[in-house]
């Protein structure tokens, strides 16, 4: 009897280092486009997924959440934390990892870091949604909040929407400098701005991705004119919003999964029956997206398990034939499945 | 700027191989006793835990479940599947892994295989509970169902309860032979039996741990006489029970977490308001355990998140100073937390 674990007992693991190498192997813009395509494909078959709001564990300083979903064939979940005060301790506000498993056997088939992958899928989702909602020919995007998500958004909108100018603003000029430095050489025209008002000048798309866990007003009502698309990324948990309520009353609001967005999104500010459109229906052609030039469209993004599932499914394919993973001895797999004790005993 | 991950970005990982080495390093009976002590300690402070029924994803052939809990300082969850048909494919019916994280930062502090650890904690929990409920001086235990859990139960009851004879029965004689072979030399007197009736002869403790996902009658009403303690391990999911209903009406029933046990345990056969006693109250001295010699006590075990939390907490301490883990590069941790993109960019 062999003590070596069998192939099924070994789970491919994509570390942070592997993920970074994979991004460069594929190319970040191609990876954003591939991710957007997979996410769009999974939105199109929305009704094949088991959907449930994420399962949170809250503390005074943050939250740890599990986000599971399944399409009946594969099962995926993400572990993600949100701890705004981490930044002051030199830690990431958001870290994540996730897993994909085979529903027929319950055996995991992929385990991966998802801090970087979440940043990529969030930006890919935003840009994919903007292709359906933003005004045609949009070339300029304002990005208010220049933290960890900012550059990913900029590149995704360049690749998928055709944005050629990004106008950056952050309360902390050092964050804007960091983003501008990182975006130099990407082909985007980068304008660092001294105020949110300056940032939104001439922008057809307004992206908000700030990190503070509070009711904030990143965009006030008078800043939002007719015809823009708002990509509201940062308002994503109870007590954390970015838009003045007045904007919400003037906008057509599009969401991922209403039961979750009503708790976590900008629309937590509104009545529970305020009308929203589900994005999967727009993507499917079952509901209308943008219907007029003057319409304000709002993607009230909170991030949903189906996007992570799609990202893991894409990753599972993308690592095949590469060296960008290792095999983890994660599953006990005795020769005789009933002889777990004997396996342990023989390891002596 | 360093590309090496910082210490906090590296998560200790205990593989299956590490776990087996750790079991031998500590000694399996000591480890069972240590686990029982930690689990008992966590039951004693039951009210400090966030408790929720596990979150399942069902298919025709099995289930994948997430079991999270937190005591406010640490957060733990287990991923576990249950696929009875896996055995025929040479796979484990149940595999598991789990994670422990710091609630203050959301950063994981331990990632581990939990197939072996679950087998250990399940047996440790059973034996710890039997110390509170089984008749004093019990020396003989019947074990019906001689699959993966059987030998762990036998050793835990030897170490923690003082059992010196185990009487084994399984529908498949090969399973009994396997268990008897593994238990040779442990100091237990092992009697292989040809029927459940033979197995229960003279036994003060009846352990059932069969694997079939159906309503089964492993113990019929007339097999259970006064004064015994029943340790019902196998009836642990909807549609999966082991005891004749008549037994339940004659027994004092003790459970881990009633909302979960009413769905998953033997008591799914009973009315929703059938009286049960919560084990944490017995352990705390707030409720009575065994009150008479003739009483039939039943531990309707289904396994609860607090037990896995306790096992992970124990493991986190047990690996310190050993070589029985590796560090996984699981968390992206740029020097500047807001510069995730720059970190990816610089890896080129």
From TrEMBL, chains A, B:
Keyword Calcium attached: no
EC number: 4.3.1.12
Pfam families, alphabetized: OCD_Mu_crystall
Species in which this protein is naturally found: Oceanicola granulosus (strain ATCC BAA-861 / DSM 15982 / KCTC 12143 / HTCC2516)
InterPro entries assigned: NAD(P)-bd_dom_sf, ODC_Mu_crystall, ODC_N
Tree of life domain: Bacteria
Single GO MF annotation: ornithine cyclodeaminase activity
Keywords, ordered alphabetically: Lyase
Protein name: Ornithine cyclodeaminase
Enzyme class, UniProt record, top EC level: lyase
Entry annotated with the keyword Lyase: yes
């Amino acid at each position: 009897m062999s003590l070596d674990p069998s192939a099924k007992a070994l789970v491919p693991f994509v570390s942070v280092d592997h993920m970074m190498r994979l991004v460069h192997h594929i190319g970040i813009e191609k990876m954003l486009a591939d991710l957007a395509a997979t996410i769009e494909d999974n939105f199109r078959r929305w009704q094949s997924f088991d959907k449930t709001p994420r399962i949170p564990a809250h503390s005074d300083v943050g939250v740890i959440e599990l986000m599971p979903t399944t399409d009946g064939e594969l099962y995926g979940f993400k572990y993600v934390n949100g701890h705004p005060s981490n930044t002051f301790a030199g830690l990431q506000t958001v870290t994540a990892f996730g897993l994909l498993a085979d529903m027929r056997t319950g055996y995991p088939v992929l385990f991966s870091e998802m801090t970087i992958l979440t940043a990529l899928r969030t930006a890919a989702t935003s840009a994919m949604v903007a292709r359906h909602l933003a005004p045609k020919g949009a070339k300029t995007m304002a990005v208010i909040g220049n933290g960890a998500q900012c550059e990913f958004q900029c590149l995704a909108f360049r690749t998928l929407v055709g944005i050629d100018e990004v106008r950056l603003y952050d309360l902390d000029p050092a964050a804007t400098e960091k983003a501008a430095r990182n975006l130099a050489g990407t082909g985007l025209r980068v304008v660092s701005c001294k105020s949110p008002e300056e940032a939104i000048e001439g922008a057809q798309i307004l992206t908000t991705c700030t990190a503070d866990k509070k009711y904030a007003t990143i965009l006030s009502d008078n800043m939002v004119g007719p015809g823009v698309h708002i990509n509201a990324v940062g308002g994503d948990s109870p007590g954390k919003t970015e838009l003045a309520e007045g904007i919400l009353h003037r906008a057509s609001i599009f969401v991922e999964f209403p039961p979750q967005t009503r708790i976590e999104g900008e629309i937590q500010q509104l009545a529970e029956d305020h009308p929203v459109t589900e994005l999967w229906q727009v993507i499917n052609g079952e509901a209308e997206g943008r219907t007029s030039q003057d319409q304000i469209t709002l993607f009230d993004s909170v991030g949903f398990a189906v996007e992570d599932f799609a990202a893991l499914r894409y990753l599972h394919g993308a690592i095949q034939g590469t060296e960008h993973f290792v095999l983890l001895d994660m599953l006990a797999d005795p020769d005789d499945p009933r002889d777990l004790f004997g396996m342990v005993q023989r390891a002596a």
